[in-house]
Amino acid sequence: MKRSKDITLILIASASLVSCGSPSSETHRELYDNRKNCVEDWGSDDRCEEQKGGRFWGPRYIYIGGRPHFFPRNSETPVPMGGEGRFSQVSPGMKSLNSSGTFSSPHITRGGFGRIGSFFRGGS
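Request: output the structure for the sequence above.
Response:
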């Protein structure tokens, strides 16, 4: 019986993605009607960003291993939520009772090949 190389390659690629423990493919943000609710959820005033009209955004967050991890401002590295805010108890797919809405977007990691990539880039 002949084995297909394509199937083997797909299985190896799938296994490597699972073994990396890749996080969810979406980041989320909670919108709040006031600062108090945002701080109550996130445990710190510096994690809440004021918007026009007196509303506030919580930090971007992602679920890794079923637990929320937030992105500190100006960082692309998620940090696990400790017990400092109510949001640490929110399960994937749920939103906080304090928030007025949730915004989700694809999680895009920035990366590349660094200096070596610029050496191999195409051109005329």
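Residues 6-23, 112-124 have pLDDT under 50 and may be disordered.
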